[in-house]
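Input sequence (77 aa), recorded before submission:
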Amino acid sequence: MKLNPEVLRKMINVLAATRPDEIGCDDCFEQLGEFAELHLAGKSLENAMPLIQDHLSKCKDCREEYEALLEAVKAIK
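Predicted structure, token format:
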């Protein structure tokens, strides 16, 4: 991969957005069920589970898992 200015800019933006208390995908995945239940209950997700909210805003894979879980939970309620 060639590190052109656009690639470097994206890498710097990702690093700048990193939080010291971030969680990884495994931790996020373990808490998705609770996060979905809070979402469906109308709770403020940024206040209730800010690290999960932050991770989902940055991680496409976890966000897709969450969206699929949310749809499944909605279907059985």
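Checked by second reader. Residues 23-76 form one domain.
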